[in-house]
Amino acid sequence: MSAKxxxxxxxxxxxxxxxxxxxxxxxxxxxxxxxTFHSAGIASSVVTGLPRILELVDARKKQQSPLMTIRLxxxxxxxxxxxxxxxxxxxxxxxxxxxxxxTEDLKNVTMVLExxxxxxxxSDLTLKFIxxxxxxxxxxxxxxxxxxxxxxxxxxxxxxxxxxxxxxNMRNFAVKGLQGIKKATVQQDxxxxxxxxxxxxxxxxxxxxEGVDKEHLYSNDMFDVLKVYGIEAARNMIANELxxxxxxxxxxxxxxxxGLLADAMTYGGSIKSAGRHGIAxxxxxxxxxxxxxxxxxxxxNASVFGERDPLKGVSExxxxxxxxxxxxxxxxxxxxxxxxxxxxxxx
Length: 347
Description:
By secondary structure, the protein is α+β, with helices and mostly antiparallel strands. The protein contains 15 helices and 10 strands.
């Protein structure tokens, strides 16, 4: 959901919007836990429900099921064969996935890669192409073709450990496709247009592929969106994913609460989790940080560095029994001395 589609709501001055938003998420989340247990037998490749919400709120850099939805240009969208050609450029093909066998001779610093003919044909690859890719990526190697095998010779005089590391990296090297894209499938929408869904996310690489509609590219990986499109796009993506996950579970949460959480996670220019390593752990107030988790650590650090607490937030004032700066507690009244004298005289 883009920012222009968001509805604007009037909020009463002094309302505890953070507490209301937290309650709006927390209460229905208990129902989502129950639903997750009830639907435990349903197999799905995409993480949904409470695990997905936790993944987003915790801002986990490694997500369980990153996906991209790629729309195609008009000249490709109606043509299935062209869509398949674009799809073939996405799927990552590792050297090890094409091998029948391999042998390493660390004494002579050589490795022989035996390729499977059928796998090479399915991936539309040749040994000459693979050899060129490996020599372009890795320095100080010679690649010699012997039938359906490649003999790799490491020319450097470095220690054996570096040769071993390089041999492992070569087998894990992607000779085709985009890094991180394990699988891609072509699908068709109700309008008869073809589009591509990938298991894995690499938006920067997708933008370089011919036939991709660069204005309609979507990823559910917040850090990939941040890297390519910036913090505002990442904020909208987090809000959109939270809303979509809630809707899938038939949980109604006002978008104002979802938008507030997304704003709090991204307002500093980077994505922060809502836990002790993010928003809660970076508050200016010592008491607010200590009231959440790791109490002793925060008090000790504050003592060592001589921190002062301005006592402007909610948590810290509740902790010490002071009136909180919310609702009527936010209102400050003043009266002139002359008027006070008149009041006293009337009494």
